[in-house]
Structures are given as structure tokens and as C-alpha cells.
Amino acid sequence: MLSIGRRTLLQGAAAAALSTMAGPSLSTAGAADAASPFKLPPLPYAFGALEPSIDAMTMELHHDKHHAAYVKKLNEAVKDQPKVAAMPLEEILSRLSELPEDIRTTVRNNGGGHANHSMFWQVMGKGGGAPEGDLKAAIDSDLGGLDKLKEDFNALGGKVFGSGWVFVAVTPQGKLSLVSKPNQDTPLMEGGRVLLGNDVWEHAYYLKYQNRRPEYLEAWWEVVDWKAVGERYAAAKAGALTI
Known about the structure:
Layout: H1 6-20, H2 56-78, H3 82-85, H4 89-94, H5 101-122, H6 133-143, H7 146-159, E1 164-170, E2 176-182, E3 193-199, H8 206-209, H9 213-220, H10 226-237
Antiparallel strand pairs: 1-2, 1-3
């Protein structure tokens, strides 16, 4: 079981204190510069690096067009809300109900899209190896081992109706679990954290796999970077994992 780090406890205490303060609400303008607080992260490898599992054209369109659009629309949504713009993205997503109603849905969709895709690029890479150490132990104990994880993960991803994501998440109790979400929703919206996740929107696979989502889900495991996932797991145990 994961331990809850000191930073997590401090963040929780700070959030509790904030909720009881009679200070300004999230919709009140602050001193933060909200002009363009969210940035498109660079892809950490070449567009064709994940061939043949994911083709170069899909990667280019996915990163440079789809993800870029989420970032642009998120910045537009918070441009008149500097206090919101100054918050970490994971905090914004965990406090959606407190956002001004006129931007809430836009932030949910585009903030979720930005967080999900930022995670997605990080957990992939060519020749990703296999889970090791504490990560392997957690997968074995919580998810029945790597083969069972892949089987259940692919089945869950195949059942997503329309567009969405399938994740390995860290529950508030510190356990690994499988969860699917519609659209650009994320476990961050319930205060959870994501170890890895796969995008099952058609734009993630249609150029190569057309309607063969199960084939895409199977091929995706060939490009999971288990070293990167292990680093995310260590960060989660330390209470330092963000998006």
C-alpha cells in the first residue's frame, strides 16, 4: 500500500484551511498574470519514435493540433480569472465545482484534456522494458500482475462508449486501480492521481487502426515506458505526483 507523504498532508491541510477562510472566492481577480499560464509541453521524442505501434502522422496531429487546441481554449477560459489561472492544474480540476459556472464546463473539458495528454506523452517511449521493484510489487498485489492488468485494462478501454480514457490510478487509500472516464475527465477531478492512461478517442488511433480499437489497445503496451511509470509511482508514494 502506498504511504501518504508529508507534502500530501500539508496540501490537504492547506486546502481545508482555504475552504474555511472568508477570503476571496475563485472568481475574484487576483494578482496572477492569466494571459497564458498553460503551455503545450514539447513532445519528448520524435513523431515517428513510437512506430509501428503509433504512426508519426497520428502523433503529429495529436500533439500539435488536438493537445494544442486544449491548451489554447483553457487559456482563453481563464483569461479573466487570474486567481484560477495561478492555481496548479491538478488543483483546478479537483475544485471544478467552485469555478464560475460560465467557465466550468470549458475548464473541465480543456483542462482535463491538457492534463490527460501531458501525462500521456510522459508514459510512452520506445523499448519501455517492464515494471520493476515497488511498481511491479504493486501491480502484482493490486491488479493481479502485468498480464492481468493488460487484459483488464484493454477490456475496460474497449467498453468506453464513444470517446474517453482508461487509467491506472492511485486511489485515496493508496491502492492501484483501473478506471475509465468519458471525454476528457480524469481521476484528478476526484482528487486522485494517475500513473498511466491510454487515450481511446478516435483521434488517437484512427489513421492507423480505423475502427479497430482493441488492436490499438493491444499495440499500445509496446510503447509504455515502464521506467517513466516507475518514476511516477515513486512520486505518488512521496505525495509529489501532480498530473
